[in-house]
Amino acid sequence: MDSPLIKNVNLFLDDKPSVFALRNKARIALDSIGFPTLKTEAWKYTDIKELINKDFNINTEENTCSHECCHHHNEDTSFIEIRFCNGKLHVEEYNMPEGITLTPLPLALFDDDYKKYFFNAFNLEKHPFAALNGLYLEQGICIHIEKNTSLNKPILIKYNQKDCDNLQLSIHNLIILEKGAKLELIEDFTSASENTYFTNTVNEVYLKTESELTHYKIQKENSKSYHIALNAIKQQEKSSYKQYYLSDGAKLSRQETLVNLDQQNANAEIYSAYKAKKNCTTDITTNINHLVENTNSNQYAKGVLEEDSTAVFQGKIHIAPNAVKTSGHQLHKALYLSDSAKLNCKPELEIYADDVKCSHGASCGELDKEQLFYLLSRGIEKHTAIKLLTDAHLEELLSLIPNPKIKELFFGFE
Amino acid sequence: MSEPLLEIKDLFARVGDKEIIKGLNLKINRGEIHAIMGPNGAGKSSLSYILSGKDNYEVTSGKVLFKGKNLLSLSTEERAHAGLFLSMQSPIEIPGVAVSNFLKQAVNSVRKANNEPELDMLSFMKLLKTEAQKLQISPEMLKRFVNVGFSGGEKKRFETLQMALLKPDFCILDEIDSGVDIDALKTISEGINTLKNENNAFLIITHHEQLLQQIVPDYVHIFADGQIIKTGDKTLAHEVEESGYGKFPSKE
Hints:
The complex is a heterodimer of chains A (414) and B (252).
Chain A: H1 17-33, H2 49-52, E1 80-85, E2 88-89, E3 100-104, H3 105-108, H4 112-115, H5 128-135, E4 141-145, E5 155-161, E6 168-177, E7 182-191, E8 198-207, E9 212-220, E10 226-235, E11 240-247, E12 252-261, E13 267-276, E14 281-290, E15 296-305, E16 310-319, E17 327-336, E18 342-351, E19 357-365, H6 369-376, H7 382-398, H8 404-410
Parallel strand pairs in A: 1-5, 4-6, 5-7, 6-8, 7-9, 8-10, 9-11, 10-12, 11-13, 12-14, 13-15, 14-16, 15-17, 16-18, 17-19
Antiparallel strand pairs in A: 1-2, 3-4
Helix pairs in contact in A: 1-5, 6-7
Chain B: E1 6-15, E2 18-28, E3 33-37, H1 44-52, E4 57-66, E5 69-70, H2 76-82, E6 84-87, E7 94-98, H3 99-113, H4 121-134, H5 139-142, E8 145-146, H6 152-166, E9 170-174, H7 182-195, E10 201-206, H8 209-214, E11 219-224, E12 227-232, H9 234-243
Parallel strand pairs in B: 3-10, 3-11, 6-9, 9-10
Antiparallel strand pairs in B: 1-2, 1-4, 4-5, 7-8, 11-12
């Protein structure tokens, strides 16, 4: 299938055979599977026809961000900040403590230590947009935390989309935590423009034995943009992955999280909050593979649907035949503000082992009329009252965020 | 004499198919306290919802004038802006909405509607602290979600706090004494007596004379089958306490 998203462009480092080989591998995979349609099971509720027919450009002129505006340092020293501007990494000297290495992707692509991590946390032939991302493999950062090392503050990756009209932005990050390492990572997508653009990100996350990653993501792209993201996580023994996601933007967004619990006592928790805005589509898809015994996962999603919005929640828990004594739980609660909102909720439990604990639950309802009346009777304007109640619906989930400084970033949504 | 604060004329109303108010007349002037007593199911709480403009309560005929203007054409929030307040029999719990945020939104919405400058966080918190202290509301309580985990007494003290902050001209107190112990009732009554002045008025809905010994009404109305069947002074409340509602026959 031809899509203008697939372009023949000359990219930085195309002349390096190893880099070209990776990009070519992605191209071959995408050629063979093509883009999904509404007949593809994993994409049956999210219509991407409009997106794949968009003729977005690829910026091949620059391979780093050279904007003046990025040069001033953020005053907030609570975080270590990494910045992408219009999809290009703003390269700077990071004063990192020992044991923590930040490597821009072009350098990581040459590093033999990192080579094995590319396209290894997911299967290119099952993820067409990740394959599309691989085609343009160039921008991204590799975060590597040495054995038993932890940072005293979180790393914040800021993606500023401010001057990216009609661009396709592809970002591919590697996050590698060695044995016993710990990290808090925040990804913050904001757009200070009315541009139409397409963000396509892939994070490949490798959690070695006893390592812990708390991964926060705030998606506030503008209402004309498209946002497709894959977080692919591979977990070793006793490792822990926690994800907190807020979807509060984009005309069409899909956050897919693929977790492979490869070794015993690995634990994954995924918390998602979403606001499906008027005429927008928000898709949250998870895929948790319990591949060995004694692995645990928990998923909780809460959402609010405005008029004429579409929300999709697909949660798959797969338990392999030998994966006994595992537990996998899933819960989804939605609040719809209008009858014209559309919610598609698809839990999938594939259980091939006995002696497991699994559950799923889904509910959806309207605003509580008594609560609304109480607020109105105190003089609070209707739109403010509705906002208070919808925020309250998401508050239960966001209150689970352990770090108060990070919690602040999640609140104050539109 | 100046115009009444609230005037209800020949009011008929229903909820769904059920007629609940059947020809009600009531006039309340500034500076007055009125009490409504009556058996369960007489339509007392319905009256309070009709006056606050709750959905599903439909006025079929009659008029309600508030400060001389048609109250019934206003939305619930506009009635609050105009100075009407309903202290609910069972205040609603709203998990996820913090007390201080709720109060600040309410105070500033009312101020804004009345062309008064909105309060910034600092001046609001100062005001809140002062008023909360008077009602023995702990700072800890202000950090919780609206009415969540509040005891019966705390819920009613919180309703009283809202009155103190919003300074309405007309307050309907729907069984402010229910679920409240004797000490909390004293705090609440004292709070309300402090709020009372010659410019505002109260309509107290209750079953018990005890409340009316602490907040003394100028008029007591017996309400049955959707209308007022007898009006008197505070001694009428005592009569009810002694011998029940049975002796007051419904009007035909």
